[in-house]
Amino acid sequence: MNILVTGANGQLGNEMRIISKDTNDNYTFTDVVEVEGVETTILDITDGEAIKKIVKENGIQCIVNCAAYTNVDKAEADEALCRKLNADAPKLLAKAMKEVNGLLVQISTDYVFGGDPYNTPCSEDQKGTPTGVYGKTKLEGENNIEAVGADYVIIRTAWLYSEFGKNFVKTMLNLTATKPKLTVVFDQAGTPTYAYDLAVAIKAVLADYEKESPKDGYSKRGIYHFSNEGVCSWYDFTKRIAELAGNTACDIEPCHSDEFPSPVKRPAYSVLDKTKIKETFGINIPYWTESLRKCMNNIGVLKA
User: Fold this and answer.
1) Of all helices (H) and strands (E), which one includes residue 62?
2) CA dihedral 117, 120, 123, 128 (to 10 degrees)
3) DSSP annotation of 129
4) How far is CA 189 from CA 1, 132, 142, 234, in A?
5) Is the pTM of this model over 0.70?
6) Where are the beta strands (DSSP E) in 94-157?
7) Distance of CA 77 to the CA centre of its chain
8) What would the pLDDT profile of 144-165 be if each residue is shown by its tens digit?
9) Which residues are known catalytic residues?
């Protein structure tokens, strides 16, 4: 198939570059900025005509949208741009796929939840209750895609990290190596997600779509959840990062969220139920500590 990946120079986009090498598919990797030494086609996903043009020129059958406005705090003061990227752009991508009877794979977030208290894993049909602009615009993006009527697979994920770009793992590797003491919140629980594992899941979706070759709509279209298996707090996550890196000199202590004031109330419990994606696409999902070890080994900092 001919597949277009947006946000190709981000965490997930770079992992999509890696998994693409093991397929016979033709990939077009796009972003709004170029990175030296990495082949990138410039594409503004807020430009509907530009999207249609690149789809036509490359015979694109599937789009994997890894691009988004992801700065949760900054989004509160930058709502217009956040909405343009997270809500409006997915609609344009869906329209482009509808015109060619193609598939849009959209990456969404656990931040569509959080307004209501709960302590069981979130299911796909659970009502979205976002608490901030980021979550609200991502939920709007989901709704816009559904309204277009194109074939789509929306995958909500959480706590994404990788070898690439800036992320929690890299930040904590630096802090636990350089600070004598660190406090990390323990009252927010979720599941870290290695972006490579998510890319592998996306690859399974694309392979299934190619196999089905739907003429009257993809039978597996819908919303799915993906993160690694298990659950932890940000405190637990940090402790494990430090242990695997051998950063034992740093005293890591738990603290409450309100000790780190933020313009956004983050989900206190955003564990995602992944039963649907596992059963539908036959995906085996690694436990979060196994994937963290793999990522840290790839970064070159694994000691324990």
Assistant:
1) strand 62-65
2) 10
3) -
4) 38, 18, 24, 7
5) yes
6) 103-109, 151-157
7) 22
8) 999 999 999 999 999 999 999 9
9) 134
